[in-house]
């Protein structure tokens, strides 16, 4: 089998960065193969993926007028389909990103960043690249229909891209990559944050993609079902290859480098000493968003007692987030009774609340004394963030950014800790800190209510589970 | 099919065409403005002259479209994804500010943001496109596109010459932008609409008129009273917002790196 | 009778342009009124009358107020003084001017908004893409329109998040500033980040294109509509020239 992509990377450094993001890596991807690249958050996976896909180094339009050379710097050679592109200090060719993408496509962590967001239907979205290349309409139609048929997403063609679920967005984005018929695709965390059904769908689509002869490179922070089937797995740590080989050979090295191996379920968390008093009670509660026709949740009864953890399980769209928002006081119940004492909620998307210039200012916001409040340093220490207290939250990898958001909730010592999908985006280290935080909250007499689709995790940390079913599909 | 994977060095042909269109747009705008100021004939004092209204509307809109056609083909993808965000921010933040009852427009936050991060061409394009999009909700804004372009262009110019390297310089640049944009837009308010968009500004114009000013004079004075202050605050707010962004993010914009818009900020 | 779904988006726009320029050139109040009523009737036929009326009044009411003050109350021209107080003079000529300007504005607003309500934005973008305009125009307009609801939703989520962490802002200018910071910083931060993340993938999908783009979407059109558009565009230019030119030419020709 011939190599589709062959990369030898001496070093790569982002513009204006002080250290190399990648160094001393060699990746060889043969036709139709499945390759895994694993590592903890911030290990350089996404950077490597972007280099393979020709998205890095970003070409500038000539040297800066002041003479300062301030661009991404890559030294190494990339081979694609028999063409060699050599990068070194004196020679920095500008990549034709669109031409490169026809050979190696890349799905970013957030599939919405790949989708154009400007088309009315999935069919048109799939045709976007072809439209830009000026392909005649009849050929576009044929190409889109055949890709959608072969990858099994023909039923989505007439849907509006804005109404897709998270899993469907990934299916559509991968199909859009496949329309150009590239020799290889790089998928950054294709399974992260999906429930079991959606994972299976994405996994199935990737298998069908490989049947078409496309080589697949998967980036993951977990040793998941895709990585274990890979021919070769590269373990990244600090931008270097810590190990390479068959999945079984590198499993141990991966675990050492902070990759989540196995189900990632922690040791069971015991109930706190003060177990008993109910701090949160739902009694036949009905919740409905102001604009919605039907209630999102109806007749829900549950309680969370001091020193215990309750888990909400159920597929995406079953109303888990709605329940947590109601518990936090953001949504008033339409019927039933809801009682809660001093809640604190960790939202799914930390980007909604981070706005300070440093982690410690963020966590100390609104507290007496701000970042100098002793509680700030204490919480940051417990979550392993002491070393990044002065960093901008947005410069942290996703896993640590999520922990910053958690810290800003914990620092207020809520009596009811509400966590919405807390494991999403966390690497192995982040999960350990999360479990420690839950244990600490229980020991200090707080109650925890969390939503998750990670059942092994819920089984280990929760003392009671409530399962929500997907509401019957109905109007807008 | 062996399509090359790398690009040749930047080509100059598009630049020449862009310069020509820019020059045409500026000549049209300046010519219309000069003609309106110079010929304020007696019959026009009350601003209802239909021919003048149509000619002003048409010339200002055409000038803006020429400038847009000049700017767009040269924008890099980083500017193309930033501009829609900026336009939506103009509207969303404009509404927020309106809802707290402070008499400022601040509807150019996004335009100035693009000027600071992606340069004058992108800034000017944002101003014009913002007007085109907003005209779907309010058709009367169409001829103000040229003024909005000027704000974006001047924001980019300010960033380029280093007026954003110190936060306190930004409002000074905003003041200048407000004066120029106010002066350029005044003929539209005066000759196309014979008034302003709101009762408060209308009362101000009425007061100047009662004191004996011509319509254009009164509208220009009103614009000079409100626009520079508004733009100074917008420039200041956007400068503070840009400094709230992590260096790693701002350094992803070629323009910021090339012209050291934010001074010597190192990325982590 | 009015099936907006069959219309090429440029057809109503071209007709509206012709109507607005010609009506403006005429400057006759009853013609303007008739045009506005006609637009309202079309809106009623298309089922968008209420939306058109509300949106138009929201723009027109303050602008009419402004015109009334400037020309009706503080106008300097006119002999027939109806009332006067200090520098303020209400003259019948001034009121007439204000009414004329108000009618002209109403035509532009009502006709323009009617187009915006009738035209399908996806069709409009596809039509712009297929026109000689730079392909960036269509993308940027479409992206903005699809981002607006997303950003508004994110703005609400940010408001919720800040409420949750007990972020309170005081009153007065410092409270306003804190509120703006609490809302604007996370919004700008996350959206600029999004924009920067999207950029390389947009380039990977071949945008901006180097040659003319094609579109999978088919925009409804017909020979009749193409003719109407050509006529309307010609009328948009010839109409006002004829209206404004004829009175000038007539005495000259008669002399």
From TrEMBL, chain A:
CDD domains registered for this protein in UniProt: ABC_cobalt_CbiO_domain1
SUPFAM superfamilies: P-loop containing nucleoside triphosphate hydrolases
Family assignment from sequence similarity: Belongs to the ABC transporter superfamily.
UniProt xrefs under SMART domains: AAA
Source organism of the structure: Zhihengliuella salsuginis
Organism phylogeny: Bacteria, Bacillati, Actinomycetota, Actinomycetes, Micrococcales
Keyword tags: ATP-binding, Nucleotide-binding, Transport
Pfam families: ABC_tran
Entry keyword annotation includes Nucleotide-binding: yes
Domain ABC transporter: 5-263, 280-476
Entry keyword Transport: yes
Listed GO MF terms: ATP binding
Alphabetized PROSITE patterns for the sequence: ABC_TRANSPORTER_2
Designated name of the protein: ABC transporter ATP-binding protein
From TrEMBL, chain B:
Superkingdom in the source lineage: Bacteria
Keyword entries, A-Z: Membrane, Transmembrane, Transmembrane helix
Transmembrane segments: 20-39, 51-72, 78-106, 143-161, 168-193, 232-250
Protein's recorded name: Energy-coupling factor transport system substrate-specific component
Natural source organism: Zhihengliuella salsuginis
Automatic annotation (TrEMBL), chain C:
Pfam family, one: CbiQ
Segments passing through the bilayer: 35-61, 231-250
Record flagged with keyword Membrane: yes
Keywords, comma-separated and alphabetical: Membrane, Transmembrane, Transmembrane helix
Tree of life domain: Bacteria
Location, primary (coarse class): membrane
Entry-linked InterPro entries: ABC/ECF_trnsptr_transmembrane (IPR003339)
Compartment(s) of residence: Membrane
Membrane topology value: Multi-pass membrane protein
Entry keyword annotation includes Signal: no
Name under which the protein is recorded: Energy-coupling factor transport system permease protein
């Amino acid at each position: 089998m011939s190599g589709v992509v062959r990369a030898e990377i001496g070093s790569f450094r982002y513009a204006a960065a002080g250290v190399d993001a990648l160094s001393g890596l060699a990746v060889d991807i043969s036709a139709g193969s499945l390759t895994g690249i694993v590592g903890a958050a911030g290990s350089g996976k996404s950077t490597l993926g972007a280099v393979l896909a020709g998205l890095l180094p970003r070409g500038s339009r000539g040297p800066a007028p002041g003479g300062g050379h301030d661009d991404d710097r890559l030294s190494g050679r990339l081979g694609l389909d028999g063409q060699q592109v050599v990068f070194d200090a004196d020679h920095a060719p500008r990549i034709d990103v669109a031409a490169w993408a026809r050979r190696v496509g890349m799905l970013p962590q957030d599939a919405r960043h790949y989708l154009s967001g400007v088309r009315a239907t999935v069919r048109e979205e799939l045709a976007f690249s072809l439209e830009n290349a000026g392909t005649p309409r009849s050929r576009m139609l044929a190409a889109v229909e055949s890709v959608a048929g072969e990858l099994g997403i023909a039923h989505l063609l007439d849907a509006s891209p804005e109404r897709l679920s998270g899993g469907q967005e990934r299916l559509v984005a991968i199909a859009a990559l496949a329309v150009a018929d590239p020799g290889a695709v790089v998928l950054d965390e294709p399974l992260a944050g999906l429930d079991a059904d959606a994972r299976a769908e994405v996994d199935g689509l990737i298998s069908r993609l490989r049947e078409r002869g496309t080589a697949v490179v998967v980036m993951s922070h977990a040793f998941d079902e895709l990585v274990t089937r890979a021919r070769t797995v590269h373990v990244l740590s600090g931008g270097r290859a810590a190990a390479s080989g068959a999945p079984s050979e590198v499993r141990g090295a991966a675990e050492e480098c902070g990759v989540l191996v196995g189900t990632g379920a922690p040791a069971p968390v015991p109930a706190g000493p003060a177990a008993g008093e109910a701090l949160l009670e739902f009694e036949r509660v009905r919740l409905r968003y102001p604009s919605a026709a039907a209630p999102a949740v109806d007749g829900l009864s549950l309680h969370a007692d001091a020193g215990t953890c309750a888990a909400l399980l159920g597929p995406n769209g079953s109303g888990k987030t709605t329940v947590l928002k109601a518990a936090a006081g953001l949504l008033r119940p339409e019927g039933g009774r809801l009682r809660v004492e001093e809640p604190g909620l960790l939202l799914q998307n930390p980007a909604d609340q981070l706005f300070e210039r440093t982690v410690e200012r963020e966590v100390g916001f609104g507290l007496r004394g701000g970042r100098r409040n002793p509680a700030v340093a204490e919480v940051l220490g417990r979550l392993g963030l002491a070393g990044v207290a002065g960093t901008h939250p947005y410069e942290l990898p996703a896993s640590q950014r999520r922990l910053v958001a958690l810290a800003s909730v914990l620092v207020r010592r809520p009596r009811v800790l509400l966590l919405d999908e807390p494991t999403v985006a966390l690497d192995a280290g982040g999960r350990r800190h999360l479990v420690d935080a839950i244990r600490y909250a229980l020991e200090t007499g707080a109650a925890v209510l969390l939503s998750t689709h990670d059942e092994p995790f819920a089984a280990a940390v929760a003392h009671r589970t409530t399962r929500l079913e997907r509401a019957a599909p109905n109007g807008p | 099919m062996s399509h090359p994977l790398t690009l040749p060095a930047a080509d100059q042909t598009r630049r020449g065409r862009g310069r020509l269109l820019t020059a045409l747009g500026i000549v049209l705008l300046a010519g219309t403005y000069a003609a309106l100021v110079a010929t304020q004939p007696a019959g026009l004092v009350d601003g209802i002259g239909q021919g003048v209204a149509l000619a002003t509307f048409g010339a200002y809109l055409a000038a803006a479209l020429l400038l847009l056609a000049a700017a767009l083909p040269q924008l890099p993808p980083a500017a193309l994804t930033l501009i829609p965000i900026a336009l939506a921010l103009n509207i969303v933040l404009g509404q927020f500010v309106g809802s707290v009852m402070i008499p400022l427009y601040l509807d150019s936050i996004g335009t100035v943001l693009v000027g600071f991060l992606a340069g004058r061409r992108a800034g000017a394009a944002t101003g014009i496109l913002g007007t085109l999009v907003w005209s779907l909700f309010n058709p009367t804004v169409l001829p103000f596109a040229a003024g909005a372009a000027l704000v974006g262009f001047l924001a980019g110019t300010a960033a380029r010459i280093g007026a954003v390297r110190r936060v306190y310089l930004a409002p000074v640049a905003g003041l200048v932008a407000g004066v120029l944009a106010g002066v350029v837009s005044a003929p539209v308010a005066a000759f196309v609409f014979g008034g302003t968009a709101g009762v408060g500004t209308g009362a101000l114009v009425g007061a100047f008129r009662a004191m004996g000013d011509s319509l254009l004079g009164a509208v220009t004075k009103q614009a000079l009273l409100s626009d520079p202050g508004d733009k100074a605050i917008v420039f200041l707010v956007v400068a503070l917002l840009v400094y709230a962004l992590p260096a790693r993010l701002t350094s992803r914009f070629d323009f910021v790196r090339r012209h050291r818009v934010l001074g010597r900020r190192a990325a982590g | 009778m009015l099936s907006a779904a069959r219309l090429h988006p440029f057809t109503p726009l071209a007709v509206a342009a012709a109507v607005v320029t010609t009506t403006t050139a005429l400057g006759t109040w009853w013609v303007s009124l008739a045009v506005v009523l006609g637009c309202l009737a079309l809106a009623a036929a298309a089922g968008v009358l209420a939306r058109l009326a509300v949106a138009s009044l929201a723009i027109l009411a303050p602008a009419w107020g402004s015109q009334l003050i400037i020309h009706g109350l503080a106008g300097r021209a006119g002999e027939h003084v109806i009332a006067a107080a200090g520098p303020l003079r209400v003259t019948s000529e001034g009121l007439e001017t204000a009414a004329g300007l108000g009618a002209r504005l109403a035509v532009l607003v009502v006709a323009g908004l009617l187009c915006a309500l009738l035209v399908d934005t996806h069709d409009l973008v596809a039509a712009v893409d297929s026109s000689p305009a730079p392909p960036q125009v269509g993308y940027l307009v479409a992206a903005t329109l699809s981002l607006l609801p997303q950003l508004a939703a994110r703005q609400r989520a940010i408001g919720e998040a800040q409420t949750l962490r007990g972020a309170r802002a005081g009153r007065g200018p410092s409270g306003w500033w804190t509120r703006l910071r609490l809302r604007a910083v996370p919004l700008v931060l996350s959206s600029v980040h999004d924009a920067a993340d999207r950029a390389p993938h947009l380039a990977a999908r071949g945008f901006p294109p180097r040659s003319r783009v094609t579109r999978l979407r088919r925009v409804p059109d017909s020979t009749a509509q193409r003719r109407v558009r050509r006529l309307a565009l010609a009328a948009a230019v010839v109409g006002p020239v004829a209206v404004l030119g004829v009175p000038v030419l007539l005495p000259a020709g008669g002399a």
